[in-house]
Amino acid sequence: MSLESRFGRYVDALPEKAWFKFLATHVVVPYWNWGDPKPKLPGGPRPSTQPSENVQRMMNLVMPLADTSSLGRAKAVMAIAQNAEEIFAGLDNVGTVHTARFVILEDNLCMISVYDGDFSNYIRDFIETIGSVFDDVMSLVKGGEVLIPTAQNVDAFIDWVHEHDLFQAPDFPTELFALQDERAGRKRGTPHELRSLPRELILQLQANRNLSLGGGYRAYPGVSAAQVRSRFGMGW
Amino acid sequence: MSQFPDLAELQGNILHGYRRAVVRHLVLEVVDRAAAQRFLAASIAGDSSDVPAITRGTILEKLPDVCFNLGLTYEGLRALGTPATHLASFPTEFVEGMTRRAAKLGDFGASAPESWPSPFDRPERVHVVATLYADKTASLDRATEQVENFAAGSHSAFAVAGVRDGRNLDGNKVIFGYRDSISQPSIRNDDIPDRVRDPLGTVLLGYPTRSEGIVFRVPTPPVLGRNGTFSVFRVLAQDAFGFEDYLDRAADELIADHDVDRLLAPGAEKRIGSDLTQHGALREIVAAQMCGRWRDGTPYAVSPDWPLSGSTELGMEESDGTPPGSRDLRNDFDYGPTSRCPVGSHMRRVNPRGGLIVQRIANHTRRLVRRGMTYGPDFDPAIRDDEERGLLGHFIGANLGAQFEAVMCDWLNLGLHHPDITGSNDPLIGANQPETSWFDLTARDGGAIRLRGFPRFVTTRGGSYTFLPSLPALSYLSKLP
Question: Is A51-166 in CATH node 3.40.50.2300?
């Protein structure tokens, strides 16, 4: 066996070596991050030029709870339980929502939903319909107090939700470059070396600790909630 | 809070149109802050012979020789020295500016900001959109000279980055031949009790809106934000030859492939146009259904078989713009469940009125005031040329996101508000591609005939999101350290 291939195998095996992992985690990545910190990428789906991609969009809203004790988390459970019926009736009135549910995950209350069309319109219509009910929920969320009443702070609330909606990693990995360029104000089409992609992803995960992996699966793509309702005679 | 404002404190183009013959938009870059502030102060004072006076909202017996209003971009507010804390109080869509909202607005492909000509190719240099309105070009020239004197010489307040001239076509028509400027939000004003439709918050910051309980963000400090509003300035090229060519093709296809009687009542040609053949009449039906109005302005919903021009049925307005009777059918109508005006028509997309829509709470909430004029040479379908012509428009509303963008991204394109059109774009001004475009004509028997394969007829050639400050706000800006 040649020296070169033995060296090659050694290098390939490095990521599994404990000393190398330690070095990467505690020295290399922090050093990179110090030299080239990535701004946090905004959440939610991005507007698309394809009409079919502008329906059935995913929201993964992660709202940190103000009180993370089990008592505080129980309050969140109660707030949803007491208001769920009204919230769901409101979503019905918004008209563009396929599904929505609430989840408590660690110290966060999450609202996970699938909706049609523009994100800002969805949130604005939601608040216009049931803002006063949702204020109860927001009162338990860290940073929520300045947004209450949400109907009177609707622009700020939309920005806040955008900030707390999970970043959706692009379906085509190299699109990450374009999103980082846009966020940093660099020109579209700035050239990047393909081999820097893993490094960029690692650094981006420093800024966006949680993310949604791609746009997700759809059994019937390109169809809006109203079209489903209309087709099945459910009244839209 | 909901008291009607002092009209003298508002810029005059917000609540009323001037209905003048010519317009000139000057795109200015602030070069010297202090000099630009002197210009603002002089234009507010209105008594300087060196600077055009800002036209206020006060209702005047006689308009001045030149009406003058201005909007500031985010970059412009910054260049004038607006403190960062107050800059941050402006809504996100305004801060980001039109070019960064391109995907939402359908500005891609040939409409992408990257392909806009100067000065809109460098949005960071677009600070002020100053608009002059007059009856004669000579008046515009005199006022332009005043601004240019301030741009050059000892003042050097601005660099004139771009100029766009427009004019009013005879009969308020637009390049595609439709009569325009018919439906506008009419603002509730206690002084004018019979015009009770849209609350003041539709077009002015700091007042109740149509959306119950919703308060749009008013930038701080209050003197800067209150009684201001936002205007979307757009340069929209209209492919008039492409549109007329398509109408020919559509009429050919309808005659070849369909039972034409489903669209055209036997013998109705002559009522659509005295000299029209069946082919010519079908062209006009396609044009009318795509727009939602016949080219003479008759709403398709009111008269689906032929236009009512010259007929007294419509209640056509007098030459001074006031309707003759109590009911103006050109605007006083709605879209019921059996309306033959296609759901996908331009008019039903941008303003579905009281018609059933998916977003049940959004009826009547996304209204815009439109102040548009035509640019480019006259259009004569018989004489081919490559000239660019189209529309220079201000689209005014108190919240860019809730009004202009909301219409553009979910209704005009995508068609989310009605399941029968979702996935299609506005046939007249949408971001269409022949490979995917479709539009359903409504037939006389209640069915539909689908048209496919039409191109994009309107291309964005520039624009910016501007803030139209009140007079006290302009005064505040003129005094910033």
Answer: no
